[in-house]
Amino acid sequence: MAVAKIIYATNTGNTEEISEILEEAFEALTVEVERIEADDATAASYEEADICVLATYTDGDGERPFDLEDFYEELLDEDLSGKIYGVVGTGDSELYPDYFCQAAIDFDEAFAQTGAKKAAEVVKIENAADDEDEEALIEFVKTLVAAVG
């Protein structure tokens, strides 16, 4: 059975809700899944995973969340060869049009340096997930699971 690890950072609760949607979608596909809040995560948290997922919000002018800064630096040094990854981001395009979901883009680029295989494009969500976003998240999970083979 494939194992997925979802690491998430949340400020308003939007990204936590998204991590729960992802968890349910993995469970529906009989994938063993663990959600880990950013404060409790290290890049080594992905060692036992087949599928590595990161869900983050973007702070201010494109900054990564404070509680993911150390994680980001650790991730750059990880070897995740043979693993599948995907990134989900939330943001506010009205307040920060130039930096919409920038933290998710940063993490996508960091994962690319780890040797992991990108299986799905970054999912960018405006604030809280609506029904359409939930469908996109379910398709995102299906794509990740299919990539494990």
UniProtKB/TrEMBL annotation:
One MF term in the entry's GO annotations: FMN binding
PROSITE patterns in UniProt: FLAVODOXIN_LIKE
Gene3D superfamilies: 3.40.50.360
Cofactor (UniProt): FMN
Domain Flavodoxin-like: 4-145
Keyword hit for Electron transport: yes
InterPro entries in UniProt: Flavdoxin-like, Flavodoxin, Flavodoxin/NO_synth, Flavoprotein-like_sf
Record's keyword terms, sorted: Electron transport, Flavoprotein, FMN, Transport
NCBIfam families: PRK07308.1 (NF005587)
Protein family membership: Belongs to the flavodoxin family.
Physiological role: Low-potential electron donor to a number of redox enzymes.
Official protein name in the record: Flavodoxin
Organism: Enterococcus hermanniensis
The organism's taxonomic lineage, starting at the top: Bacteria, Bacillati, Bacillota, Bacilli, Lactobacillales
